[in-house]
Amino acid sequence: MARETKSGLSDLGGCQIEATLQLLDGKWKGVILHHLLRDEVLRFNELVKLLSTITHRTLSKQLREMEVAGLVARTVYPVVPPRVDYSLTPLGRSLEPVIQALGRWGQENLVAVEDAALKPCQMPVGSEAIMRSAA
To answer: Structure pTM?
Structure first.
């Protein structure tokens, strides 16, 4: 049974993989981390331009969640207009090999995954499935 830890992440019976995936959960977090690893410091609007289909609300939410988790540092400068920079903390930077591995896997395998998804389903459906299961 899962129990909540101080960070709000579930202790899933010692499953560090699941806990790590919870940290990276969200369509954009991996891509945000990738850009912050590459560019080191980015302003909010720079991230918006890099992630052209993300909404301001979603980007704010994803950044806030990563800030709470200790992966991203948010620096606010007291100037007009307001300036906010985002960068990775040492903990966030420690995800670099994970993000790089995900990128390599994608380069090596996404074509095969897309090809598999385009093939007609080999699973029987309807009465054919019922007949096979009864046999």
So the answer is: 0.73
Type and span of the H or E element at 41: strand 41-43
What domains can you pick out in the chain, each with its CATH number? 3-120 (1.10.10.10)
Q: Are the C-beta atoms of residues 10 and 4 closer than 8 Å to each other?
A: yes
Residues with Cβ < 8 Å from 48, sequence gap 6 or more? 54, 56, 59
**Helix, coil or strand: residue 101:** helix
Contacts of 50 (CB under 8 A, 6+ apart): 35, 42
Provide, rounded to the nearest whole percent, the portion of the chain with pLDDT above 90: 53
Coil vs helix vs strand at 126:
helix
Residue written as tokens 């909010």?
44
- Helix/strand number for the chain, H first, E second: 7, 5
Helix, strand, coil abundance in the chain, percent, nearest 5: 55, 15, 30
Tell me the C-alpha distance between 120 and 135, whole Å: 24
Nearest C-alpha neighbor of 36 from the set 51, 25, 57:
51
